[in-house]
Amino acid sequence: MSSNSLKSPKQDSKLTASPPEPTLRESKEKESTTASSSNSRQKRWLEASSEPKVSELRNILELHRSERQLIVIQDFPDPDALSSAWAYQLIAQQHNIQTDIVYAGTLSHQENVALVKLTGLPAKRWGVQTLKDRDWSTYQGCVLIDNQGTTSQLLPWIKQAGLPITVIIDHHKMQEDLNAEFIDLRPQTGSTATLMAQYLQGGLLKLDGNDSDHIKCATALMHGLRSDTNRLMQAQEEDFMAAAYLSRFYDVQLLNAVLQTARSKRVMDVIERSLKNRLLQNNFSIAGVGYLRYDDRDAIPQAADFLVTEENVHTAVVYGIVHDEDEDLEVVIGSLRTNKLTLDPDEFIKEAFGQDSHGRFFGGGRMTAGGFEIPMGFLGGFNESAEYTKMKWEVFDIQLKQKLLRLISPEDTVIHTD
Ligand SMILES: [Mn+2]
Question: Which domain holds residue 323?
Fold first, then answer.
């Protein structure tokens, strides 16, 4: 486990006016007096930041040559997870490791559906009901990409099947004690796609501009990198370097086609509800959007993306009750978006909602975004009475607002419901 990456300075430090402490990378650059071309500069950057990881991962892959691995991504995969998992799959193939990319939830954002369809991205949905019939014994290891297992319903099954976690590559903060043969956890990095691009550039797979799968994967990685860094607005140097590398291979028209996907009417309706219901307090915008279908779950982060664009708003929190018809389960799902650099979404969500009875947090986050899921347990499930359904929403709505407002305006925790 690399503890160095966790101790690096907070991202807020980029706001300070004084020049930053020389980093390992910079001091290495000063040592070298030869080679000044951009190519060698880039090479040195790569050596300093990720070369040890590249050879470590290569060794691990070689150790597991000809095995079969299960690549698990979060239940509601985003472009960063999807593209990074694909890159891992292509890298693993170099060592004759066959992999399946799986997720237990659904692809709900229209852009993600378009990404998968347009690139032929090889991710498969393993619905929760199908898990008991899966043959886990065909796999020798599990790989977690852009997650640490806390956002996948597959993990309990993997643990039960005794499937070892071979590799974790992620850029979220450490969620819980991790146990894996290879861990690359870099919370200061903008996207997992950045890390995967570094592995590609480091030589684990030589991208070929004539190979259409390579072009499509590079395009997907570019999309993942852009979408996790707010279109590069929050990108750091290493993210730009990774994007520069991918720019040699990606297909601009294909990326454009993915980005042009229109929102569905139901997503627009949720955004409308969030706009109508929003409560503005201390530059926060909070909106409950009521009940949603499982397939429309991704309307919540999209609504939060929209609310945070309002003047004088720095942080938006949107939540709703998502109903899974197949399982008759209900869960409160919420998203946070912020452009306030001193607000840490991970800390904010953990502090606002606390932990469940097993000590697990209801959510977490990365640089500018966070999410949470609160199971409704005994109160979950469909009820025919409209009155009851309405009342249930109101109870959860008030409870969530109360927990959020306690942090947003601690001096005024009383909520007036009329
Ligand atoms: Mn990510």
Answer: 265-408
pLDDT for the residue 86: 98
Q: How far is the CA of 25 from the centre of ligand 1 (A)?
A: 24
342 assigned to some structural domain: yes
Determine, yes or no, domain membership for 94. Answer: yes
pLDDT value at position 359? 87
| Ligand 1 mean position, distance from CA 334 (Å) | 17
- Domain check: are 135 and 163 in the same one? yes
Report d(CA 391, CA 135) in Å as an integer: 43
pLDDT of 41 reads: 52
The rounded Å distance from CA 170 to ligand 1 centre is 7
Q: Which residues of the chain have pLDDT under 70?
A: 1-50, 412-418
CA of 77 to the centre of ligand 1 (A): 9
Is the pTM higher than 0.85? The answer reads: no
Does residue 22 lie within any of the structural domains? yes
- Structurally, the chain folds into a number of domains equal to 2
Which amino acid, one-letter code, is at 295?
A: D
* Best CA proximity match to 302, nearest among 263, 353, 360: 263
Residue 61 Cα to ligand 1 middle (Å): 23
Q: What is the pLDDT of residue 12?
A: 35
> What pLDDT score does 209 carry?
94
69 and 212 part of one domain: yes
298 assigned to some structural domain: yes
Confirm if 283 and 337 have CB atoms less than 8 A apart. Answer: no
339-369 residue pLDDT tens: 998 999 999 999 999 999 888 899 988 878 9
pLDDT given at position 42: 52
**124, 251: one domain:** yes
- Those residues whose C-beta lies under 8 Å from the C-beta of residue 383, and which sit 6 or more positions away, are 389, 392
CATH code of the domain containing 269? 3.10.310.30
* Per-residue 3-state assignment (H helix, E strand, C coil) for 356-397: CCCCCECEEECCCEEEEEEECHHHCCCCCCHHHHHHHHHHHH
Q: How far apart are the CA of 414 and the centre of ligand 1, in A?
A: 36
Q: What is residue 49's predicted lDDT score, i.e. its pLDDT?
A: 59
Q: What is the CATH number of the domain that holds 92?
A: 3.90.1640.10
What pLDDT is recorded for position 27?
36
350 with 255, same domain: the answer is no
Q: Give the residue among 215, 171, 164 at the shortest CA–CA distance from 196.
A: 171
Distance (Å) from CA 224 to ligand 1 centroid? 7
How many other C-beta atoms lie within 10 A of the C-beta of residue 328? 10
Residue 297 per-residue DSSP state: T
Q: Are strands 141-145 and 363-365 parallel, antiparallel or unpaired?
A: unpaired
